Amino acid sequence: MGGENAVNTATAQKPEGYRILNAEDLRHLIAHLPLARQLGGRPETWRIEEVGDGNLNLVFLVRGKGSSGFAVKQALPYVRLVGESWPLPLSRAHYEHSALTRQAKHVPKLVPKIHHYDEALALIVMELLEPHIIMRHGMMAGTLYPKFAEDISSFMAATLFHTSTLAMTAENFKSLMAHFAGNTALCNITEDLIFTEPYMVAENNRWTRPWLDGHAAKIRQDNDLKIAISRLKLKFMGSPQAMIHGDLHTGSVMLTSDDTRIIDPEFAFVGPMGFDVGAVIANLLLNYFSQIGHENKPGIRDDYRQWIVDTIEKVWTLFHRKFLDEWRTHGHGDGYPYKLFDNRHGTLALERERESYMGRLFRDTLGFAAAKMIRRIVGLAHNIDLEYIENPKIRATAEARSLMLARDLMVNTSDYRDITVVTAAARRINDTTPELTERNQRDED
Ligand code: SR1
Ligand code: MG
What we know:
By secondary structure, the protein is α+β, with helices and mostly antiparallel strands. The protein has helices at about 5-15, 25-30, 35-40, 90-105, 135-140, 150-160, 170-180, 185-195, 215-220, 225-240, 275-290, 300-330, 345-380, 385, 390-410, 420-430, 440-445; strands spanning about 45-50, 55-65, 70-75, 80, 85, 115-120, 125, 135, 240-245, 255, 260, 270.
């Protein structure tokens, strides 16, 4: 797992002055910062708790007088999910801070405000998002988010377009690439956990046993799938299109019914745009298939399933429209030089090319979405949408259906002409694939 490199980089990048904070250390630290005034009251009265449930970091909530408060994120020098045996550079806080700052220039209302950054402690103090919750949790409870598709499509269209050469000069874009080029350890996690390990025997892999033993084995023997994932891996490593969030799943979204914030861009680097759009679609699809495990009566979540389907379709169609709008209005980057298309025929040709660009981006999106679905079922880090389904047979049924769609999306991508073909396939698989039984589980072996 990117072994020696990760260890060396982690050791080399641990800055002087770093220590892992506990609640009391943090109280002391904040008490000496000007932002302490915003909390009001004496430091002893602040309520501080560590609530991080992600795979990598510590997250503290600090509450002062009234509704005042902060969320404080500190990078640990290792992967929290695994422990100290897997070192990870603290520099990810630097990249996260940098990505948040850049995103805020384009979509200030869709990211958390930063109040303080301490490079040595790898610590970011942000606005406390309340009463927001992590989207994954809300979807597991069947909560509708009417603004989500609008907001996430605005976030992706603006952040991806404005950090690409469609909007930027070649010179500025190269500085951006250089800036994020050091985030190699985080990219390495993605390269291993998403694009490699689920397709081989690897210590990190796990799945719902014994139900999916046969499915996991099939994946490891499926050369068409292995070629397809390798092409996607090449694209991930070698397509610097824009500054991407890099981990845009529904655990990186905090929201209420009328406010959406995108958090946690520590995996940011200059990579393929479809990786972000695909992450959103993958996580909505996984949640769609997981609903069988969250409804207390068969069919009771049908309306919710319909909302997810509508949302998936809207995410793509709104993103498509907004990205093109940005391009038509602000397309002054070095990517498609305006002077080449400066007459009526040129304008028409450029407009056709824009549609063709979006077609390529759509296919990338589907491929990356499929990769993100498969890794959450047979790789190391799973989604609680599926993990929290207690009955393993039901969980495995939802997972098997997800794998079925993902495999087809990845291998037969060009059969999916538009997003409604994807949602129709999801619906068909969900409605017609029988639940796993002991017998068909054995048949898969
Ligand atoms: C070891 S880190 C596992 C996963 O957690 C993050 O959210 C990323 O998705 C990463 O792949
Ligand atoms: Mg995260």
